[in-house]
Structures are given as C-alpha cells and as structure tokens.
Specification:
The chain is of the alpha+beta class. It folds into three domains: 125 residues, no CATH class; 355 residues, 3-Layer(aba) Sandwich (Rossmann fold); 116 residues, no CATH class. The protein is built from 17 helices and 32 strands. Strands 11, 12, 13, 14, 16, 24, 25 and 28 form an eight-stranded mixed sheet that branches. Strands 5-6-4-10 form a four-stranded antiparallel sheet. Helix 15 packs parallel to helix 17. GO terms for molecular function: metal ion binding; serine-type endopeptidase activity; tripeptidyl-peptidase activity. It comes from Cavenderia fasciculata. InterPro entries: Peptidase_S8/S53_dom, Peptidase_S8/S53_dom_sf, S53_propep, Sedolisin_dom, Tripeptidyl-peptidase_I.
Length: 712
C-alpha cells in the first residue's frame, strides 16, 4: 500500500462525558444514502440483526512471512500449510480483547448463544433492542431503490466504550449500504427523461464473435481430457455468491443437455436461498454449472452471502469451514477506492477503503496459508470500468455504437459535459453514465431538461446532434460537427457543452477489488473467434457483450512475483495510456485469462429450482473464473492422489512457470481492453507477447501446465 492505513476506530472521535466515554463506530444521518436507499421507519425491537466486531490482530508480520514461504515453489516450506488453529494461535486477538468485548456484549443483555468467538472477530446474531444497547444507537429500516430489498442499519451515531478502542479494529454489518446488484436498472430509469432515437433494429446485434462455448468445446480447446474426473474424496472446490443463487433444475437441465452424469456432480448449497425474493440466478447458474462440468466427480460447495455482506465476510466465514475448500471462485468486484461504496460515505462506517482492503487481504493470506487457491474475475468493463468512475475517458469516435442498432454509424463528438453549479459536479455523458455525478445530474429533472434543450439547440445546421440508443438501450451522442462547435446551453444551474478531455477532470481508470488483491489469482476473459486459431482479448469491439478487465491497482503495491513480467510489459514498446493515468508500481492484473464469451448455460424460466428450463448465452470474466477453478481442482486431485499437497496460492507458481517455459500458457497477443460493456474508449491496455494487463500471462495449456506441476 502507498499510504499508511489510518485506523479510524482506534483514533475515532470520542464522545467524552463524565458518565461514560464512547468510541464512534458509525454515524448515518438524514442525507445518507439518498441516492440508493430510502429511510423507512424504526426497526422493531424483535427484528434480527447480524454484525461482526473485528478484533485487533497479532503478529501480522510473521503471518506475511509464513504466507510467502508456503506459496513460493522455490521455498523449502512450499506447500507446508497451517491449520486454522495454528493461524489463530499466531494472529488471533488477545484473551484480554475477547474478554473485554464479550463482557460488554453480556452487559448489554446478550446471552452467550447470540454470539460466537472466532480467532480475530466476534460474530453477533441478536435482536435490534440488544444491538441498540451494544452501540447506544437506534436501528432503522432502509429500502433499496434498485432492488426494493429492505435492510436494517443504524441511524445516527453508534459507539462502543472507549476502553474497547485498543481491542476493536472496526465493525461490519451495522452501517454498510453495499448494493450487490449492478445498477443497470437504476441507470435506465434515470435516463428515461432523455429525448432519444431508439434502436432502428431491435434485433440487430454485433457480429457473433465466435463459436458457442460448451464443456466439451472448452475442454478440447485447452487440452483437458474429456474423461478426466476427480477421484480423491478430499478434492473440494467452492463458488462464493453474494445475494445470488442457482437453480437445481437448471443445473440438471444443463447436465442432461451436455451429457454429464448426475453422479459426477456433487453440490452442497449453503447460505440464504434468495430466489423467492427474485434475486439473480444467472451468475450462480453459470458458476456452478461450469465449475462442476470441468471438475467432474469433485465435491463443490456453493455458499451464498446475505444481501449487504461482502468479500471480507466471505474470507472470514469460509476460514472456519471444515474441511476447507481447496479452490474458490468469486465472480464479483467493485471499485477498489469505493469499498465502503462511496468515498464520501466512508465516514459513516468509521473505516476507510484502505482499512477494509488491508483487513480483507490479511484474511486472504490466512486462507492461502491454509492451502486455498482463490480465483477472482477481473471485471467486465475493461480498464476504464463503468460504475462509480469519473467518466473522464474519451469515447473513441471510430467505434461509435459498438453493440449496433443506432440510427447513425459515426459521430464527430461522442461525449458532452454537464456541469452543475449547485454541487460542483461534472457529468461526462454518456461515457460516465455510471458515475455518481451523472446519476445525480440525470435524476434531476432540470438536468435532463438541460440535456434535451442542448440537443435541440444543436439539432439543426451542420451539427445535426441527437441522442441515439443501441440494441441494449445504451445511449450515444451523434453529431456531425466537432465538440468545440457545439453551442453551449445553460439553465437552472446546469451548463451543457461539448466534452474536452483534461487530466484534471478525473482518473481514466478505476481498478476493481478484490481482483486487484495481490493475494488472489485474477482471471481475465479471452475470446475464441475460431477454435483452430489463438484467442484474442474479449471485447465488445470483437462481438462480445463484455470487455475483460485489467490494469494496475492505485493503492496496492506490486508483489515481487510479477515484477519482472510487468517490467517486460512496460518496456515492450506497446502503446500505453498516458503515464500519469496508471500506477506502474501497483499490483497488475489479470494474472491469467480463459475464454469468457458465448457460454451456453441452463436457466429456469421461473427463477426457481424447477423447470421448464432453456439454454442461454452469456459472457463475462465470471465465465472464465469458475471454469479455470474447475480445471485447477482437477490438478489438485492428481496432486492429492500422488500424496502431494494442493496448489494453494497460485501466483508465484504461475509466474515462475511462465518465466521457465512459455508454452505452459497460450499467449494472447491480439486485442485490448479499451472498451467497457457499452462504449469503446481511447485509452486502455493492449495485449502483446508475454505478460500484459489485457490478458495476463495468457490462457492455460492444461496438459503442459498440469504435467509441469506434477513433476515438481
């Protein structure tokens, strides 16, 4: 990390009084979080809440040293994993810390059945009335404007006795408003007031972009033997989900369609089944179907996390699993600088992004030290991302309306700027439509009116300006004149003009977390245009419906295992974005890629465990990650059968293998990640020979890589 972690809870604002001093752990007020959640009414005393009190950890320097020793193939300690008990004895909270916090919980009216003590945190399940006593706070119900789901969170200040400050890191679960779903629906609603030309051909799509991916096609392309199955009972993998669930009926339908025997698919479902509440199933259907199809015969855990939980909850909770899955896949991510959702909302949690990331990374290290491989999708919106960005990455006018369906085929000025004097924000439309500034502007009727008036003012003459829609109802700005030639329009505090890129308007790139963590294996997406030819980077520019993510972390340092590969990439002569726009000393991702386009998956028509079901085509790095996870589970199975330990944290092995012999990976040298899922930008990263931040080391050559691993 590039700046010191500030432990806000440890240095919290203290409410000092003669009676009882308190340390602030959250403060949610009336102006928060209006953009996505609506305050309803006070929670009932009998309503249930769940939260974690994270205790201060010990000996993190020793933990770090041990982690790298067991993860480095050149170390004498490689593969000599520790148990959770051993890790807890090393890093767990002090007895004094546990006793002090539990004493406070008991004094607040909780009984011992309402909390459980873990090595580095205390999990609490209790009623609102008791939680209010713990934090001297009030809990209210909030409703999401995106999903309609209800969440109980603190309203006002929440605090703990100051004598706990030396023992408590921070608290999760009482003030977060993380929204697990993407905000596509909300964005479309805010844009409904814009005057636009709809798609001229609703069924018009971009070129198909390659053959359909099925388990047999994928195995054949990457050299996975079709008859290879896991035979060791300890072979255990998992899929982590967040407010998402899979359909048993769809899984059975998928297996029957592709000749997979039910006896080879062993799945254990855990966590809340949210399908009755209409949570998404597409992601989880994809994850479970392809992870099990790749690793036939292996045991697979599917663990869903409740709405509002995030990756730290996953990492803490799965550490207690017995047995511990050896491989995990996560198809989720969010901007690394927005891990408390929005920068200006971090203060409500009383911890910041860096704290959350550091604590999560430590939890990832513990899982790696226990022998777990963690795969994380690199994101589906290229280098620039889409949600909660600045939007300040110029759209490439030569790739106008890349998904197809717009009334025009080109534009001279693909973006406009909407400035709002009242709050000082600038919305760069449509490239920044997922940004906070654009959401604020477009949800204001005066803002929408200003855009419409601007377009009408420039509709005539040589500019012929208009807003058009593609087949996915994304908006595009068409003009026949340059941005500087457009007439500026101002009204009600809004000023609309042609867009002009400047560095000061905001960052070009917004890397995601947890894929940017140095302690996970980041998986990008490739595209197979022809099964007889090499892959290219998956992009909407080549007919996909997503663009694989990649880039450099802004806040997490580059680990030594990839420093040589990254240095070679930066000096390879490939076109790079402006030097000020990315952190060359940051963690680079992805590490590796796999096909992420045109996967055929089974889906239940009723979004339940029952059929009728059908096959649908999906794209995403969320295709790549679980599929690769299944392949690595097969390699682990062979290692276990040879009385060798599982692979554990994979990255040092990957980069050392690539350095020793390049044909362990299928090098991807064509394409870039300049686009996101709707627009193609001027700036991003290109694939080249060897490692790059568009495709990583390339895709796996299963036969050669597994032989290499087994020979070590």
């Amino acid at each position: 990390m590039f700046r010191q972690i500030i432990f806000l809870v440890m240095m919290a604002l203290l409410a000092i009084s003669a009676v009882s001093a308190r340390m602030l752990v959250a403060n949610v007020h009336s102006d928060f979080p209006a953009s996505r959640f609506v305050l309803q009414n006070k929670a009932q005393k009998s309503d249930l809440v769940e939260f974690k009190i994270l205790l201060v950890e010990q000996n993190k320097d020793i933990l770090d040293e041990l982690f790298w020793e067991v993860s480095n193939p050149q170390s004498a300690s490689y593969g000599k994993y520790l148990s959770k008990k051993e890790i807890d004895s090393l890093t767990g909270a002090t007895r004094e810390a546990v006793q002090s916090v539990t004493k406070h919980l008991l004094a607040s009216g909780l009984n011992k059945k309402e909390f459980s003590i873990h090595g580095d945190y205390i999990q609490v399940h209790t009623t609102v009335v008791k939680a209010e006593a713990v934090f001297e706070a009030e809990f209210y119900k909030f409703v999401s404007l995106v999903s309609g789901e209800e969440r109980i969170r603190v309203y006002g200040d929440a605090s703990l006795p100051t004598e706990l400050a030396q023992h408590v890191d921070f608290v999760v679960g009482i003030s977060e408003f993380i929204e697990d779903k993407k905000f596509t629906e909300a964005i479309k609603e805010t844009l409904s007031a814009l005057e636009s030309k709809p798609s001229v051909a609703k069924n018009l799509k971009a070129p198909a972009g390659g053959p359909t991916m099925t388990p047999s096609v994928i195995k054949s392309y990457y050299g996975v033997p079709s008859n290879l199955k896991a035979t060791n009972q300890e072979s255990y993998q998992m899929i982590a989900a967040f407010n998402d669930f899979f359909s048993l009926g769809a899984l059975q339908y998928f297996d029957s369609k592709f000749g997979i025997s039910s006896s080879d698919v062993k799945v254990n479902r855990q966590g809340p089944n949210c399908m009755a509440q209409q949570c998404d199933e597409m992601e989880s259907n994809l994850d479970i179907q392809y992870s099990t199809a790749m690793a036939l015969g292996a045991n697979t855990l599917f663990k869903n996390h409740a709405n509002g939980q995030w990756v730290l909850d996953f990492a803490l909770e799965i550490a207690s699993a017995s047995p511990l899955p050896m491989v995990a896949s996560l198809s989720y991510g969010f901007s690394e600088i927005e891990q408390c959702l929005l920068t200006n909302e971090c203060t409500t949690l009383n911890y910041d992004n860096l704290q959350y990331i550091e604590r999560t990374n430590t939890a990832f290290q513990k899982l790696g030290l226990m022998g777990m491989t963690i795969f994380v999708s690199s994101g589906d919106d290229g280098a620039t991302s889409f949600y909660y960005t600045s939007g300040n990455n110029p759209i490439d006018p030569s790739h106008y309306c890349p998904l197809g369906g717009c009334a025009s085929t080109s534009t001279q000025c693909p973006m406009i700027t909407i400035s709002y004097a009242a709050n000082g924000t600038e919305c760069f439309f449509p490239g920044g439509v997922g940004s906070v500034a654009c959401q604020s502007t477009l949800s204001n009727q005066d803002g929408a009116n200003a855009i419409n008036a601007f377009m009408r003012a420039n509709a005539g003459g040589k500019c012929a300006a208009s807003i058009e829609q593609d087949v996915e109802k994304n908006y595009h700005v068409h003009t026949s004149c340059s941005c500087s030639s457009l007439k500026t329009y101002s009204a009600n505090g809004f000023k609309v003009s042609g867009y002009s890129y400047t560095e000061q308007n905001g960052a070009l790139f917004y890397p995601d977390f947890p894929t940017s963590s140095p302690y996970v294996t980041s998986v990008g997406a490739s595209q197979i245009l022809d099964t007889s030819k090499p892959e290219v980077v998956c992009s909407i520019a080549t007919g996909a419906i997503i663009t694989g993510g990649g880039g450099f972390s802004n806040i997490q340092p580059q680990p030594s295992y990839q420093s040589s590969a990254v240095s070679s990439f930066l000096s390879a002569g490939v076109n790079l974005p402006p030097s000020y726009s990315f952190n060359t000393s940051g963690r680079a991702y992805p590490d590796i890629s796999l096909v992420g386009h045109a996967y055929s998956i089974g889906v239940s028509a009723s979004s339940s465990d029952k059929c009728p079901c059908s096959l649908q085509s999906v794209d995403g790095t969320s295709c790549s990650s679980p599929t690769l996870a299944g392949m690595v589970t097969l390699i682990n199975d062979q290692l276990l059968n040879a009385n060798k330990p599982q692979l554990g944290f994979l990255n040092p092995l990957l980069y050392q293998a690539a350095a020793s012999q390049s044909n362990f990976f299928n090098d991807i040298t064509t394409g870039n990640n300049n686009c996101n899922h709707a627009y193609c930008m001027l700036y991003g990263f290109s694939a080249t020979k060897g490692y790059d931040t568009a495709s990583g080391l390339g895709s796996i050559n299963f036969a050669k890589f597994s032989s290499y691993v087994l020979s070590k």
